[in-house]
Amino acid sequence: MTRRLPACLAMAALLASAVAAASDTRADDLVAKMVRAVDQLNYEGIFVFSQENRMETMHILHGRDEHGSRERLMALSGEPREVIKDDHSITCIRADSASVCMEPRKTLMGMPGMSPLRGGTEGLRDNYRVDVGASYRIAGLSCREVAILPRDELRYGHRLCIHEDSGMLLKAQLQGHDGTVLEQFMFTHIEFPESVDEERFEPAMEGEDFTVQRLEKRDRPEREVMEPDPHWHLRDLPRGFGVTAVRKRAMDANPHPVQHMVLSDGMATVSVFIARAERPEDLLVGVTRSGALHAAARPVGDYQITVLGEVPAATVRLIAESVVHEESP
Question: 3-class SS at 29?
Fold first, then answer.
């Protein structure tokens, strides 16, 4: 009996490894199917979005045909707002011209955890555990949970509930390291029509009481894009984060060009903005928060460093402290 114990342990280890590999494959397949569904399916529904003590109810209509994808989003609570999107433009309609029309995360591709998953789950497992969980019932449909949970306290976790038949995302949660829900979206009703009439994407809110703003999706003029300053570096970044893009351009909100570095750990995305300050008294230092979003400010010489991302406060602080300017020898 004693001699057979090592063989039994080896068999158990092999079985556990096979189960884990099967779970990884299933999670990858569900996430890939979800990303395709959110972009390619026709659907119409109502969902709620909650953040801390705020809750909003939204109506969404999404259609895709040979001309591309279109989406119409309308707020059913709070200030009247409507957004109509296609592959070429975004039209924002609101009652108060000074108010924010719609936060990016209110569109499905901006929901907690959606945008970075367009590239799949490859590379996530160094910093996250990816597991397939239990089955739940959301909006009258069954869905399977995929949990993407951090391996440390420097990033948030995500729980996605995916309708296995269609791949549609029915519920998403952004969680702190202790499991506290920071943001959540969930459908209360959803349908999948075979087609959507073109007139359904016409504005529903019209009249003198509404402000209409239309933004064309086009490349920025060449004069606004500049060569990044190669002397700005990020040293001793938090584990798992790396620079994915660097650009420098003119921005309306700043009289000086702004260098923008984009960092990612495969799931979380953090932006680093570097701009010369007009006056020393304009330089800021400290950390602020809005929901799950944290911002850290720190001066380096005459420059203002601002780090912004849906990550814990410690993460934006560490990234801000890693920014250095080094002259060439």
Answer: helix
List Cβ neighbours of 80 (8 Å cut-off, separation of 6 or more). 94, 95, 205, 210
CB neighbour list of residue 315: distance below 8 Å, 6 or more residues apart: 154, 155, 238, 241, 268, 270, 294, 309
Give, in order, the Cα–Cα distances in Å from 304 to each of 80, 247, 269, 314, 316: 36, 16, 20, 19, 14
Maximum C-alpha span of the chain: 86
pLDDT, one tens digit per residue, over 199-243 is: 999 888 877 778 888 877 654 454 567 899 999 999 999 999 999
pLDDT digits over 80-89, tens only?
A: 889 998 888 8
Tokens of 243: 């620079």
Per CATH, which fold does 18-216 belong to? outer membrane lipoprotein receptor (LolB), chain A (2.50.20)
Give the side-chain half-sphere CA count within 13 A for 301. Answer: 10
For the chain, the domains span 18-216, 222-325
Rounded CA-CA distance 311/272 in Å is 13
- Closest Cα to residue 71, out of 189, 214, 196, 165? 196
Q: Which CATH class is domain 222-325?
A: alpha beta
Buried b / exposed e along 86-96 (16+ C-beta atoms within 10 A): beeebbbbbee
Return the structure tokens found at 238.
């938090």
